[in-house]
Amino acid sequence: MSRPVSYVEVQSPDLEASTGFFAAVFGWEPQPFAAPDYLVAPHGDAPGIDTALLPARDGQARAIPVIRVPDLDAVLATVPEHGGTVVVPPFTIGGVGRGAYLIDPAGVLVGVHMYDPAA
Prior knowledge:
Largest sheet: 8 strands, mixed
Strand content: 35-45%
Structural class: alpha+beta
Mean pLDDT: 93
Shape: globular
Number of strands: 8
C-alpha cells in the first residue's frame, strides 16, 4: 500500500461528550491542534495512528480515515475520472497543510491531506 491512512478523524455532533467518553474509556488525552476545537489524541509509542476529535460540520457522527498524499491537486484531479466526487473542496490548515474530502463510487467518505508546514 503506497498511501496508507495516516490518521483518523472522529467527527462528533457533541465534541465534549465524545472527548469525555474516549478519555474515560480508552485513556486518550486529546490536545488542541491547529484550532481550539480540533483535538488530537496522539498514539505516542504505542502501535496505531493519531486520532482527531472534532465537531461534525453537518451534525452527523462519523469516523473518517485520512490518507496523506504528496500532491493534493493531482489526486483530486483523478477522483472524477474514477467515479468519485470531491465533496469538500481543498482547504488550508495554517502551518499543517491542505486537505479535502471525497467519496468513492460506492459512497465511502475519506479525507486526503497534503502536509505543508508553510501553508
